[in-house]
Amino acid sequence: MRITGGADRGRSLRAPRGSRVRPTADKVRGAVFNILATRTDIHGQRWLDLFAGSGALGLEALSRGATKVTFVDSSWESCRCTIRNLERVGLAERAEVRRLTLPRGVRRLAREDARFEGAFVDPPYRRSLAAATLAELGKSPLLERDAWVIAEHAAEESLSERYGTLIRTELRRYGSTAISLYVMEGP
């Protein structure tokens, strides 16, 4: 697994041991950032990497110019792996790693007055965690107006077109993986 673009392109990453973590394939990660490049400039933005696992999506965002990424996962092992990957690539000073259970952890972050221009939601497949987390984000003050949310989910998993103020703008399939893009509707 490697960073696919930006200043740290080609740098290798490690994934936590075991079958609990399903790292986003390099091909899908590259596609996600190609899609984002046509919709927003992540330079200078703050992003969330929810269900971070190895931290690959957030590390990709940092490599491509995001100012800061907050990585969130419920697993100590995943948090440690993300920290090691951040240190390996030299991006630890632009990141925060939090051990929180999602989707409840979204409310905790919101109470801390954190604000983000985007979020990656990449939970374990087939557990309804994508929908529940999108629902929390859609009613939370965490995301700035016009923020993007990218949800990775099983292709056969059906997500809603709308979660509160989040509106799906696109759905793409890559084999057994699907990517749903949502934008935060503003006042």
Could you tell me how far the N terminus lies from the C terminus, measured between alpha carbons in angstroms? 40 Å
In percent, how helical is the residue content?
A: 25-40%
Radius of gyration: 15 Å
Shape, per Cα inertia axes: globular
Q: Judging by the overall fold, what is the CATH architecture?
A: 3-Layer(aba) Sandwich
**CATH topology tier name:** Rossmann fold
Specify the number of helices. Answer: 5
Tell me the strand order in the biggest sheet: 3-2-1-4-5-8-7-6
Tell me the CATH superfamily. Answer: Vaccinia Virus protein VP39
Total count of domains: 1
Structural class: alpha/beta
Low-confidence stretches: none
The average pLDDT score comes to 89
CATH class: Alpha Beta
The description of the largest β-sheet is: 8 strands, mixed
Counting DSSP E segments of at least 2 residues, the number of strands comes to 8
Strand content: 25-35%
Order of helices and strands: HEHEHEHEHEEEE
Give a nutshell description of this structure.
The protein has 187 residues and is α/β, with parallel strands linked by helices. It has five helices and eight strands; from the N terminus they run αβαβαβαβαββββ.
Describe this structure in words.
The chain is an alpha/beta fold and 187 residues long. It is 28% helix and 28% strand. It has an 8-stranded mixed beta sheet with strand order 3-2-1-4-5-8-7-6. The longest helix has 14 residues, at 76-89. It has one domain (26-184): Vaccinia Virus protein VP39 (Rossmann fold), CATH 3.40.50. Helix 2 links the parallel strand 1 (46-50) and strand 2. It has helices at 26-37, 56-63, 76-89, 104-111, 129-138; strands at 46-50, 68-73, 95-99, 116-121, 143-154, 162-163, 166-174, 177-184.
